[in-house]
């Protein structure tokens, strides 16, 4: 499956049509988007039977750092509902059909949200094809000390660990982006209130000087 954006009020993850030329499919996709105030955005992911869909999301920026999250099955059943959460991780065993997940910011009337999410798809049918491709090019395996199955097991183990490393690095980048946004917001807030305090101090100092000068002024009128 490849990530394709469709401007139809909601975004969709769609499979290419049968027989169309395509690159090697990716089982790990991530996306960052801005969700305006009072809006709801939905995505679709086609899945196969007995596969696994893992979805992780984080709110990187926006007041409250929260959003409503819905995950629906192809039959329209609600599988997951998170109310005003800043992040979440969900894994479901899938059936044939399109799974829909939505991010809802309709409860906010002012603040937009920057949202990051990552999809990890397992058991989508590519591993068996990879094994068949290996068997086409390997001959005389009985002469080797290590069997083909051992080689495939080692390669799959390395592949799984690399995928997990990429996933962790992606999540760390998302956490870093959210923390940076919070720090920048705090920095702007501190600068604003520092300027307000400075202005108040200047006004109070001017008033005090004026009052002190007025105490020492000679208000007696001289007689002529």
From TrEMBL:
Membrane-spanning intervals of the chain: 192-212
SMART domains from the UniProt entry: EMP24_GP25L (SM01190)
Main localization (coarse): endoplasmic reticulum
A GO cellular component entry from the record: Golgi apparatus
Entry's localization field: Endoplasmic reticulum membrane; Endoplasmic reticulum-Golgi intermediate compartment membrane; Golgi apparatus, cis-Golgi network membrane; Membrane
The keyword Transmembrane helix is assigned to this record: yes
Database matches in InterPro entries: Emp24-like (IPR015720), GOLD_dom (IPR009038), GOLD_dom_sf (IPR036598)
Pfam families (UniProt xref): EMP24_GP25L
Residue ranges constituting the GOLD domain according to the UniProt record: 40-121
Membrane topology label: Single-pass type I membrane protein
Assigned keywords, A-Z: Endoplasmic reticulum, Membrane, Signal, Transmembrane, Transmembrane helix
Endpoints of the signal sequence: 1-21
Similarity comment text for this entry: Belongs to the EMP24/GP25L family.
PANTHER family: TRANSMEMBRANE EMP24 DOMAIN-CONTAINING PROTEIN (PTHR22811)
Designated name of the protein: TMED5 protein
Provenance organism: Bombycilla garrulus (Bohemian waxwing)
Lineage, top ranks: Eukaryota, Metazoa, Chordata, Craniata, Vertebrata
Gene name of this polypeptide: Tmed5
